[in-house]
Amino acid sequence: MKQINIWLFALVFSMSLLFSCGGDFLEKEPHDSYSQDIIFTDIELARGAMIGCYDNLSNVNSWYGRNFVIIGDLAADNTKVRPVNSGRFLEDYFYFKNKDLSQAGFWFRAYETIARCNYLISGVDGGIPNATDEESNQLKGEALFLRALAHFDLCRLFAQDYNFTDGGSHMGVPVVTSVETFGQPIRNTVAEVYAAVISDLEAALTLLDDSNYGATELPYRANTNAVNALLARVYLYKGDYTNAKQKAESVISSGSYTLFTNASYISAWGEAANDESIFDAAVTATDNLGVDGLGPMYLKAGYGDIAPTDGLIELYSIQDVRTGWFTVDGGDLYVNKYPAANYSDNTRVLRYSEMYLISAEASARLGEIAAGTARLNTIRTRAGLTEVSPNNAIELLTEVALEKRREFAFEGHRWFDLRRNQQGVERGDDCTANEWCSIPYPNDQFVYPIPQTEMNANPNMQQNPGY
Predict the structure, then answer these.
(1) Whole-number pLDDT of residue 400
(2) Which residue, 21, 28, 140, 370, shows the most beta carbons closer than 10 Å to its own?
(3) Which of 262, 256, 253 lies closest to 276, judged by CA?
């Protein structure tokens, strides 16, 4: 396994010409390997390098291609491993994390993405002779977005929640924003990671020009709405509810998206991109995930390793359109939220309905009950549920948490939501994880260990407590 100090070694941009991001730009013919000096002499080669920066997002064994999404529900109370299984995800469900294996792939892929983005930013800053300012700014803005997403997701998995200590002063992950040959970085604090993420995203907003790509490409490429949507999520995790609401509302008011209708809700999940897609990790035939992809982990036709918990199922009433995600086969319940026949479902990283629920939660925490209730009820009535009328902020927050659990089941949000709200995990009577069926907050096991290979290679790296 490579470590950060290896990953940051002058990456040749042969890697940058990999294609796994959806849209017309995927139809370009791949080039042979090019050195960094050659790539940044031509805008088309630089655009190819930008495509390479997106490549790791859909990686099946680490990021949005499968594992990162599965963990967000399985480590919490939404899903469980079936008694008969292929052996996947046992360490995540049973909380026995192996320092040599546990999400080392994600650590590698995320920092590799950061390294690619840093090279692209450096190359753009050095000047691309035949590129307009708008073209250069677009590339840099997208790279800043991806670098921010990678740092944020790393911090979510390998560090405790922002408010674990006052002001986020506890260990986060290394923030890497420059091209280094052999880097042995220290761990920045969580507050420093969040500051770097927000800085990158705010800078991206000043650079991106959404008109540079066709509409069909935008869900797979960073645009201003994707940046604002990620900022809304980051601010929510940080506890900055004023900014969280402002960013969420800016996406809602953009007019660029529409919520699924009740009638189209289930069928929309079979579409490559849809009206709620703000930013997707695209999976193409080239990726060839097959039965190792995200959907087959839930489907009997695949491995079917992961099942919904009784506690989650009980949250859905018969009127709820989202019950269409569930199918019964041989007396067992399976999840069909990722229904693509060839298992090439794109992962929804940022979705329009999340902005409504971020706005609702932020409003509740700001004491704006009427505004928050209106945003919440829009999502409820779309699902076929009746409106609620909470009397105070606590009641509204309770309803928002329940609705988010229903709406974003199997999308990898639940565990991170529990942790940022400093709540433990209560897995219910159908839990088979023994002593890990009730997990109080705080807990050392709410973060993953820094991979041992990284610890061995970098004398400046500190391991998480408990490992």
Answers:
(1) 98
(2) 21
(3) 256
Q: How far apart are CA 368 and CA 345, in angstroms?
A: 37
Distance from C-alpha of 282 to C-alpha of 65, rounded to nearest angstrom: 8
Residue 170 has pLDDT above 90, yes or no: yes
CA proximity to 244, closest of 299, 275, 201:
201
* Residue of 434, 240, 275, 297 whose CA lies nearest to 351: 275
* Cβ–Cβ < 8 Å for 208, 223: yes
Q: Report the sign of the C-alpha dihedral through residues 424, 429, 430, 435, in that order.
A: positive
pLDDT for 110-153, tens place per residue?
999 999 999 999 999 999 999 999 999 999 999 999 999 999 99
What are the residues facing 438 on neighbouring strands?
426
Instruction: Say yes or no to pLDDT of 450 above 70.
Output: yes
Confidence band (pLDDT; 50, 70, 90) for 301?
Answer: confident
Quick check: 337 and 410 in contact, CB under 8 A?
A: yes
Structure tokens at 314: 């009980």
pTM for this entry: 0.93
Q: Note the pLDDT tens digit of each residue in 84-107.
A: 999 999 999 999 988 877 789 999
When the pLDDT of each residue in the chain is averaged and rounded to a whole number, the result is 89
Distances in Å between the Cα of 183 and the Cα atoms of 171, 179, 255 are: 18, 9, 44
**With contact defined as beta carbons under 8 Å apart, do 57 and 117 qualify?**
no
Distance CA 422, CA 416 (A): 10
Domains of the chain, CATH where assigned: 4-76+98-283+346-457 (1.25.40.390)
pLDDT (mean) for 353-358: 98
The number of angstroms, rounded, from the C-alpha of 298 to the middle of its chain's C-alpha atoms is 19
pLDDT for the residue numbered 211:
65
CA-atom Rg of the chain in angstroms: 21
Q: Which two tokens stand for residue 255?
A: 């007019």
